[in-house]
Amino acid sequence: MDPRDELLSLKEHPLPVEGDDSILPTRIAKIEEEMKGVEEEMRAVNEKLSEKLSDLRGSRNLLLDHAILIGIVEDSAWKIEKSVSFGNRVADPIKLKSLSAEKWKLYSESVRDKAMQDVKLLLQKAKDGLEKSVNLGIADKIFGKNVVDGCSTKPEMVSFKVVRKE
Predict the structure, then answer these.
(1) For residues 47 and 53, is the Cβ–Cβ distance under 8 A?
(2) Taken in order 25, 31, 36, 39, is the CA torsion positive or negative?
(3) DSSP state of 165
(4) What is the per-residue pLDDT across 137-150, written as a single tens digit (0 to 9) for each?
(5) What is the pLDDT of residue 165?
(6) Does residue 66 sit in the same domain as residue 99?
(7) N or C, which end of the chain is more exposed by having fewer CB within 10 Å?
(8) What angle do CA 77, 79, 82 make, to 5 degrees?
(9) Would 34 be classed as within a structural domain?
(10) Biggest CA-to-CA distance, the chain
(11) Dihedral (C-alpha) 7, 9, 13, 14: value to the nearest 10 degrees?
């Protein structure tokens, strides 16, 4: 049986739940309390670990800068190796323009044409989406919020929560 079939089977024929059914809400509440405790512990641990990692990074960077500054980049067990990597190219527009005014003009026109194509594509996407969904912010300003609300629906979402009885 694959996982999907098993999931469908469990939905149709759930496994029996052990324990006293007469206090199901209490059992659920206790599980929720334990879940909250675990979530709080996780947040605290994550916060402490993030702080420790930040401190370690800071200490590493200080020591690395100091070692490079004073020239001690090797000891009996370890050495600091320098590696250089390069990011994406960054062309200087002033230099390119100074090389050829004619080619710069062609480049400028090409950039403008590309921008126009992008704008046309965005406009087409917006036009295609007009019949599918409404931008509520714009519609509220034009039609008025009350009118738009009258033409709107709110999807119903159902959830369950266990609360202590008074």
Answers:
(1) no
(2) negative
(3) -
(4) 999 999 999 999 99
(5) 82
(6) no
(7) C
(8) 165
(9) yes
(10) 86
(11) -20
Sign of the Cα pseudo-torsion (138, 139, 145, 151, in order): negative
* Inside any domain, residue 157: no
Decide which of 40, 73, 106 is a domain's last residue: 73
User: Domain containing 128: what range?
Assistant: 92-151
List pLDDT tens digits, range 89-108. Answer: 999 999 999 999 999 999 99
Structure tokens at 117: 């194509």
pLDDT tens by residue, 37-90: 999 999 999 999 999 999 999 999 999 999 999 999 999 999 999 999 999 999
The answer to whether 32 touches 164, Cβ cutoff 8 Å, is no
Contacts of 50-55 with C-beta under 8 Å, sequence gap 24+, read: none
Q: Are 161 and 31 in contact (CB under 8 A)?
A: no
d(CA 122, CA 18): 57
Q: How far apart are CA 32 and CA 34, in angstroms?
A: 5
Distance CA 31, CA 149 (A): 40
Residue 127 located in a structural domain: yes
Residue 121 token pair: 């594509």
pTM of the model as a whole:
0.50
Exposed/middle/buried for residue 143 (C-beta within 10 Å: 0-12, 13-18, 19+)? middle
Mean pLDDT of 100-127: 95
User: Token pair for residue 54?
Assistant: 């930040």
